[in-house]
Amino acid sequence: METITVRGRAVPRIGFGTWRLQGRACRDAVADALALGYRHLDTAAMYDNEDEVGAALRDSGVDRDEVWLTTKVWHTNLAPRRLRASAEASLRRLDVDRVDLLLLHWPGPPGTTEPALDELVRLRDEGRIAELGVSNFPAGMLERAVGHAPPVFCDQVEYHVHLSQRRVLDAAADHDLLVGAYRPLGGGRGVLDDPLLAEIARARGRTPAQVALRWLVEQDRVCALPRSADHGRRRENLDVFSFELSDSERAALDALAEGERRYVDVPWAPDWDA
User: Fold this and answer.
1) Distance between CA atoms of 87 and 166, rounded to whole angstroms?
2) Of the listed 38, 47, 159, 182, which one is catalytic?
């Protein structure tokens, strides 16, 4: 598994996302992902599957220190005491002493981000989390978060060939941050049917999904977090490190970005141009 090093931390370039995977199906999927060679797992308190993720990791035989484990605090739990309780509950459900990365899952109402970041820093200083970060923060909010809490390590955002995240990437470069790309295949809403992806895939003897993921993992500071309930797709999504895109192919894929956001579910959705 190839890794990207940010601030001295080696993070696997491909992670296994677990959103909408629950119960036995989630446990089996995570177990299969680990057996295939995934060493990066992404979950969240809101996903209601941390028990299953933790059980699969515990039973896998894979050393805990070999797996980068991320979870998230939901936006209703950003008050410091609630955040700490959420983090501790996540650790219990995952059956681990620490997670590698704990994220604020969404921005909260005005005035909630700074106290939440302060509590994340305290958890990091106590060794309960290795790194702290945010998710779904547009560039302006990300800049303010880093200005308040320089230890911010990551912004996890929706990112794929139909959605540019140039401003977030620029901020990440300025502050030495990781960008986690969720929905890297667009959530099944047209990305994988794109004619350009199909053309490059045919030329490379690959699938459109592999081309879309390769475009992401070739970028500086980016890791991709595909989710799949299918063994074959999980294996396919991991097999993206034995080919490279040409300069012209990368440029053509860069130009696909449509600026279309596909998932917003909080009543105070951020100003995406902030």
Assistant:
1) 31
2) 47
Q: Is residue 37 part of a domain?
A: yes
Q: Which helix (H) or strand (E) holds 223?
A: strand 222-225
Identify whether 47 is a catalytic site residue.
yes
Backbone angles phi, psi at 179, to 5 degrees: -115, 120
State pTM to two decimals: 0.95
Task: Report, in this order, helix, strand and coil percent for the chain, each rounded to 5.
Answer: 45, 20, 35
Residue 16 sits in a domain whose CATH number is 3.20.20.100
DSSP assignment letter at 139? H
Query: Which uninterrupted H or E stretch holds 69?
Result: strand 68-73
Confidence tier at 265 by pLDDT (50, 70, 90):
low
Please state the domain count of the chain.
1
Looking at residue 189, its pLDDT comes to 66
